[in-house]
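User: I'm new to structure prediction. If I give you an amino acid sequence, what do you actually give back? Let's try with this one:
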Amino acid sequence: MARVKTQSVSPFVKLLCEDRRYKLEAYDFVRLGLTYAQEVLDLGGEEVGPPRKDGSPRPRHISGQDLCWALKELAQEQYGRLAKLVLAEWGIRSTSDFGEIVYNLIRIGEMSKSDSDRREDFDDIYDFQEALVRQFVITREPQGVPK
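Assistant: Good question. You get back a string of structure tokens that encode the predicted 3D arrangement of the chain. For your 147 residues, that looks like this:
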């Protein structure tokens, strides 16, 4: 029998095959949300880890709770009144799902965490129906993230 050379499968592809709860868009959204929290909302404390080899700064640490609020704001900014429906289509139905996605990304090395971070930091931060539907307000200015 001839041997077939197989290419290694990327950790991200393996993750999508192993955990089918969330679509690719869900992971992309959470990664974008982290950048949005750090760069647009200017959230985060100290840089996580030593400086990078190329001299660029490490990302600033964002708490699970802050990330959830940033993701709420980003979802409303991008999808308006459809935010809850779009997230549900990707498998995201609660802030706990954000935590599952983040910890899946940590597991494959796509995100990092501090020693004090816990998966439970994402649980019950807000109710999607309340935060994304009932409290949705159309404004000219972006809605602020609660402090």
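You can read the tokens as a compact description of the fold. Here is one thing that stands out. The longest helix spans residues 24-40.
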